From TrEMBL:
Cofactor(s) the protein needs: Mg(2+)
Origin: domain of life: Bacteria
Name of this chain's protein: Heptaprenyl diphosphate synthase
Family assignment from sequence similarity: Belongs to the FPP/GGPP synthase family.
Source organism phylogeny: Bacteria, Bacillati, Actinomycetota, Actinomycetes, Mycobacteriales
Pathways per UniProt: Isoprenoid biosynthesis
Annotated PROSITE patterns: POLYPRENYL_SYNTHASE_2
Entry coiled-coil feature ranges: none
Record key words, sorted: Magnesium, Metal-binding, Transferase
Protein's UniProt keywords contain Glycosyltransferase: no
Length: 344
């Protein structure tokens, strides 16, 4: 973790403000990291090696940071329950990554060999299950309401993965389908992190609901901004080559919007990205990727995707406006601004 042991005033676009506030969040995150590894290191060696694989590989720890910032809206932001709740959401997130890598047949995760590639699909699945079990054990110490929140969130995560795997049913709006998947697979856990942070620090019921809705909006906005960056960025700008999703046959929000347009450019885009029967085609030719990116960047679909992002940002700002004014609020406001500004 790049933050641990240092004062970090900017994290993933979040301006943490004062050194004192940043240091306090960093100290709490260090406790989360300690508890995370302690939970995953208790057990048989053959199990814990795989279970700690992704945790030790690093990662941004965005979800626990969001929970820790959300805890600043309650009177007890340094309660031990806050650390427990923040660790739970990261355990759930890491568990989903093991399962995602198996489904995607991924070979790398966070710059390291994925668990499924290093061991096997079976070991990776079981390691993910172990993380879910550890998360369940930890959340049980927070009481029945917290157990219910995690159970409901886990159901949303699985539903989103299933919805994405099955695909958009015939006759339904692919944009609505895609945004629903984004909420279920990404935003639901960030919303739970906000809810947990507020609950465990003693925030008011109204503020807890606002923090949950804020997580919804930020989680969806960040995914939409990633969609836009994958198409609009220059090589090297975003840490990955533009058009990665197109090469994998994944149709993100700008693509879905653009495919509904009419005219020669839209016809050519459909020719590149869809088979005669309407199935999605992965692009393997670099020249075709470049052509598709050019068509997408010039499309109304890209404009509509940016408008959708702005809409989610407005939702987030609206929730923030109703929260008490403190350094956490200013930090979260900077995150929303960054989410929009990072698309250029």
């Amino acid at each position: 973790m790049e933050w641990l042991g240092t004062v970090k005033t900017t994290f993933m676009g979040i301006d943490m403000g004062s050194d004192e506030f940043s240091s306090g969040i960093g100290d709490s995150l260090a406790k989360v990291e300690e508890l995370l590894l302690a939970e995953l290191s208790s057990g048989e060696d053959f199990l814990t090696e795989a279970a700690t694989h992704l945790a030790k590989a690093g990662g941004k720890r965005f979800r626990p940071v969001f929970a820790l910032l959300s805890s600043q809206f309650g009177p007890n932001p340094h309660a031990s329950e806050v650390i427990t709740a923040s660790t739970v959401v990261e355990l759930i997130h890491l568990a989903t990554l093991y399962h995602d890598d198996v489904m995607d047949e991924a070979e790398l995760r966070r710059g390291a060999v994925s668990a499924n590639a290093r061991w096997s699909n079976s070991v990776a699945i079981l390691a993910g299950d172990f993380l879910f079990a550890r998360a369940s054990r930890l959340v049980s110490t927070l009481g029945p309401e917290s157990v219910l929140i995690i159970a409901d969130t886990f159901a949303e995560l699985v539903t989103g993965q299933m919805r994405e795997t099955i695909g958009n049913p015939s006759g339904t709006d692919p944009v609505d389908h895609y945004l629903r998947v984004v909420w279920e697979k990404t935003a639901s856990l960030i919303a739970a992190a906000g809810r947990f942070g507020g609950m465990t620090s003693g925030a008011t019921d109204d503020d807890i609901e606002r923090l949950s809705r804020l997580g919804d909006a930020i989680g969806t906005a960040f995914q939409v901004s990633d969609d836009i960056i994958d198409i609009s960025s220059q090589p090297g700008d975003s840490g990955k080559n533009p058009g990665t999703d197109l090469r994998e046959g994944v149709h993100t929000l700008p693509v879905l919007y653009a495919l509904t347009e009419q005219g020669p450019d839209a016809d050519r885009l459909r020719e590149l990205l869809l088979s005669a029967s309407g199935e999605r085609l992965p692009l393997t030719d670099d020249a075709e990727v470049t052509e598709a990116l050019g068509l997408l960047n010039a499309s109304v679909g890209m404009v509509r995707a940016r408008e959708t992002l702005a809409g989610y940002a407005d939702r987030a700002y609206s929730e923030l406006a109703q929260l008490p004014d403190n350094e956490a609020k200013r930090a979260l406001t900077s995150l929303v601004s960054y989410t929009v500004e990072r698309i250029g």
